[in-house]
Amino acid sequence: MIRAICDHADLRQSNLWQINIPEDYLNKTFGDLFNYLSNERHLIPLGLYRLPGALDNQMPYVYTNPKKNVKLTHKDKVFVLSFNMPNDLCTIN
To answer: Which residue has the higher pLDDT, 51 or 11?
Structure first.
C-alpha cells in the first residue's frame, strides 16, 4: 500500500549530502539559499554545518532548520536531501 502511494506521488528515495555554499550565495541568507536549492536545483536544504570561525564559534556545529534570515559565510556547508547530487555541487574537501 505504501509503495503504491509513493509510486503514484512520484516519490523517490533521497540521500543526505553535504555541499559547499554556492559562491553566489555567500553573505546572503539561508532563505535565499533555500529558495534557490529547492526551486531551481530540486534539493531540500535541512541545515548548516558551521566550521570554526564562521562567526564567533571556536568549534564546528550543526545548525538544523536555520531561520530564513541567517547569514551564510564561507565557512558554512549545507546539508541537503536529494535523489542524485549534481556534480557541480559536490563537496570534495
So the answer is: 51
Length of the chain: 93
Q: What would be the CATH architecture of the domain defined by 14-89?
A: 2-Layer Sandwich (3.30)
Instruction: Mark 4-41 as b/e (b = at least 16 C-beta within 10 Å).
Output: eeeeeeeeeeeeebebbbbeebeeebbebbbebbeeeb
Sequence-distant (≥ 6) Cβ neighbours of residue 59 within 8 angstroms: 52
- Return the pLDDT at 13: 79
Instruction: Give all strands of the β-sheet with 44-50 in edge-to-edge order.
Output: 15-20, 76-82, 44-50, 61-64
